[in-house]
Each structure stands twice: as structure tokens, then as C-alpha cells.
Write a structure and sequence with these properties.
single chain
Length: 295
């Protein structure tokens, strides 16, 4: 019989996931705001180079192995790097809140992929949630197709990659050190940035712009991004270790709320009524697709 989580630990888990999504969403806003000053490939290298030593220390302090099955951790990291590249590339193309809403269809794709792996149809409740989430995405990417740009589908592709990474995590990485997984991810970011750097030099390109000299202002920005991703990754690890997964996942959706806040404060982005309705529909659909409290 599984013991019920202590109420205090559940509260700590909720606070940890709220801090995590606030930090990650703020980091995404900073990347969107400074994208033309620092190309994406350079930002990935510098940010992860700063945070990797800290993660190495956190992963090693327990005395156990950093990873037990590194090949699965590498595949997981590859999926997540591809996911973040898709998401970051979408940020200059659309408001932060809309990109976040399209990306947060990820849990719906997790339901689909998990059902495919288990060779079992999702629950009727989950199927309704998937349909509602799909309608919400259509509202965000303009259902009348006027001004539609294929690039606005990038957050949805990011959601599919995220879902694949999470299903893989559940199947192969449950016993891994979370700090070790975060370390492999950040080392993969560095490798991905180096590969992209081979094709860099395109003036005005968000992803492949030329290397920028790093002055004090940019160094502070990158250090801030490193701190935010450290808070986000560690906060999420603590939250899912201490709290009931369904409860933590429900509060994970507060990322959408924080994205609306940062979008309004930093970029003066206020989505239209149809887009806001789409965001609300995705939020409700994601919560509806969550497993019951007994999980």
C-alpha cells in the first residue's frame, strides 16, 4: 500500500513547481527579448557552460553514479534539445503567451503516446481533452488562416518532442539521478550549440547569427539565464519527488499564467479574445487529461 504524501511536503512541492515555472517562463521571456543581441547557438553554449559545473556537483554529492543507463539519458536529452530549439525558434514569430499555450499541449500528446506504447485506447475523458486542446491550438494559430505562418506550428512540434521525451523518461529513466539527467541535458545543449555554430554568421538571424563579443551586460544576462534554468530544473525535480504527480502537474500549468504576465509586462503583448479563449481551452483540457488524485 502506497503511503499518502504528507500535507507539508505537498505544499513544498507546489511552491517548488510554482518557483520552477516562474523561473523558466521568465528565462524564455529574456531569451525572446535579447534574441537579436545574442544568437541562440551562442546563448545555449554560454548558459549551459555556466550551469553544468553546478549540476555536476549536485549529481556527485550523493556518492552514487551520475547515471545508470546513459544511452537512454542521451536520447532523452536529444529529444529535449530539439524541443527547445523548436520552441525558441518560435518565440520571435509569435507572442510569448501564445507560444507557451501551443507548447503546453505536450501533456495531451503524452496521453496519446503513452496509449500507443501501452497499445490501449485513452480514457474517454482523455480523448475529450485531446479534442479540446486541438481546438484551442486552432484558435491560437488563427483558424481563418489569414496571416497564417507555418512557423507558428513550431511550439506544437516542440510539444510532440517533449511528450516523446517524457514517455521515454517514464519508461527508462525513473531511477536516474535527476541532477544527472539535467547535467546530460545541459552538456547536450553545449554540443547542439557548437553544431549550430558551424553554420553561424548570418546577420539578423535569431538562431544562426554571428558570434557576439560578450560585454558585462551580456555576461550578466547569460548568468541570469543560467540561474533561472538551474532554479527551474532543480525546482521541478524537487516538486515531482515530493508531491503527488497529478497535483504537481496541475500547478505546472501555471506556466501559461506566468507567460501571459511576462508577455504583458515585457512586450506589451495582449492576446486577442479568440486566442485567450484558446489558451483557456488548452489549460482546461490539460487539467482534464491529468490522472486522478490516487495516482
Amino acid at each position: 500500500m502506497t503511503s499518502r504524501p504528507h500535507p507539508i511536503e505537498t505544499r513544498h512541492a507546489v511552491l517548488a513547481i510554482l518557483l520552477s515555472v516562474a523561473a523558466l517562463s521568465l528565462g524564455d521571456a529574456v531569451i525572446k527579448a535579447t534574441g537579436l543581441a545574442l544568437p541562440l547557438w551562442q546563448m545555449l553554449i554560454l548558459r549551459s557552460a555556466l550551469v553544468a559545473p553546478v549540476l555536476w556537483w549536485l549529481a556527485r554529492r550523493g556518492g552514487g553514479p551520475v547515471l545508470r543507463r546513459p544511452h537512454w539519458a542521451l536520447l532523452r536529452a536529444g529529444l529535449l534539445v530539439a524541443m527547445w530549439l523548436c520552441y525558441y525558434t518560435a518565440l520571435p514569430l509569435m507572442p510569448l503567451s501564445l507560444a507557451a499555450a501551443a507548447y503546453y499541449t505536450g501533456p495531451l500528446f503524452i496521453v496519446v503516446l503513452a496509449a500507443l506504447v501501452a497499445r490501449r485506447w485513452p480514457r474517454r475523458q482523455a480523448l475529450l481533452a485531446i479534442l479540446a486542446g486541438f481546438i484551442g491550438v486552432l484558435m491560437i494559430i488563427r483558424p481563418d488562416m489569414s496571416g497564417f505562418a507555418p512557423g507558428t506550428l513550431l511550439p506544437v512540434l516542440a510539444a510532440v518532442l517533449y511528450a516523446a521525451a517524457m514517455v521515454l523518461t517514464a519508461a527508462t529513466c525513473r531511477e536516474e539521478n535527476p541532477f544527472g539527467l539535467a547535467l546530460v541535458l545541459n552538456l547536450s545543449f553545449i554540443l547542439g550549440g557548437l553544431v549550430l555554430g558551424l553554420f553561424s554568421g548570418r546577420e539578423g538571424s535569431f538562431m544562426l547569427g554571428p558570434w557576439q563579443s560578450v560585454d558585462l551586460r551580456l555576461l550578466i544576462t547569460v548568468a541570469g539565464l543560467a540561474l533561472l534554468i538551474l532554479i527551474g530544473s532543480v525546482g521541478a525535480a524537487i516538486a515531482y519527488q515530493k508531491g503527488p504527480p497529478a497535483t504537481v502537474a496541475a500547478f505546472d500549468y501555471s506556466y501559461l499564467v506566468f507567460s501571459l504576465i511576462w508577455g504583458a509586462l515585457v512586450f506589451a503583448e495582449v492576446p486577442g479574445r479568440v486566442a485567450l479563449l484558446g489558451i483557456a481551452l488548452i489549460l482546461v483540457a490539460g487539467l482534464f487529461a491529468l490522472p486522478g488524485r490516487k495516482n
